[in-house]
Specification:
About 35% of the residues lie in helices and about 20% in strands. The chain has about 280 residues and is an alpha/beta fold.
């Protein structure tokens, strides 16, 4: 199946993550079990050990990110944090601890099943400062100039309209507000890798290059853009990221494996930070 319209992309991503959430709930090994969800290989590289202590097991097992956007972030008590594509809520719950009862964490996700899981996990964690909203990251259900910190974990690469996402980040951040984004970037990918829905929902096919990513944020008016972490994927790691779908690819599986081999060294997980200027 190839990726076509923006609506096709969103439907494919929804289906992939609903299936991944179901697999995560049904296995004992968490996100490191052999049945790897989208971005699962990336998630294996993430150290949440301290931040996720005592959080609900389902929130940890259902994390499909490619980094920890809150690692070393200067989130403070009383602030407002927005999580784009908040999923089952792991980053939300970590942020809720950082901002405390006087702060607020807003999670936006387009998938009902993820929002349901996040509400359950927030209730279990006793996180009363979490506000979950259904929406797409290209049209955030969030007021202008209302957010101190924006975080996102392996989600923007899935958007078919990344410039709109970058503009939305600039819109919702307060003057002086900051962002910390963990995401996948890719350079010179073979068309076979980009065209397949399975590689798109696995956070590979829709990824743009690191210079394009930084450029998009800059065009949106964001400043002080820095890449603070970078991990380049091997061929085996890329194969792991779509491992759960190989059984459904039939005769195409070998061709896709070969295409992923050719993408080795061209795909990376990065953490990008920056802020909105205090004056326009």
């Amino acid at each position: 199946m190839t990726v076509k319209t923006d609506a096709d992309i969103r439907d494919q991503v929804k289906d992939a993550y609903i299936a991944a959430l179901s697999r995560a709930k049904g296995r004992d090994g968490g996100c490191c079990s052999p049945d790897t969800p989208p971005a699962g290989a990336a998630a294996k590289l993430v150290d949440y050990s301290a931040d996720a202590a005592d959080l609900p097991e389902e929130a940890v097992a259902s994390s499909f990110g490619c980094g920890n956007p809150l690692a070393f972030a200067g989130v403070q008590e009383g602030q407002v944090v927005l999580d784009l594509g908040s999923g089952a809520g792991l980053d939300l719950l970590i942020a809720s601890r950082k901002v405390g009862p006087g702060g607020k964490v807003i999670g936006v996700d387009m998938t009902d099943e993820m929002l349901t899981a996040a509400r359950k996990n927030a209730d279990e964690a006793g996180a009363t400062n979490v506000d979950l909203r259904k929406g797409i990251i290209e049209e955030l259900p969030v007021e202008d100039n209302s957010v101190d910190w924006l975080i996102s974990n392996c989600v923007i690469n899935l958007s078919p309209q990344k410039d709109k996402v970058f503009a939305e980040i600039a819109r919702v951040l307060k003057p002086g507000g900051q962002f910390s984004i963990s995401d996948i970037v890719a350079e010179d990918l073979p068309e076979k890798v980009r065209d397949l829905a399975v590689t798109y929902s696995a956070c590979i096919g829709g990824a743009i290059s690191e210079p394009e990513y930084r450029g998009g944020l800059k065009r949106a008016g964001l400043t002080d853009i820095k890449v603070t972490d970078r991990f380049v994927y091997s061929a085996s790691a890329l194969a792991d990221m779509v491992a759960s779908d190989f059984d459904n690819l039939g005769a195409d599986a070998d061709e896709i494996r070969a295409a992923l081999n050719s993408a080795a060294g061209k795909v990376a997980s990065v953490r990008i930070s920056g802020k909105k200027s205090r004056c326009d």
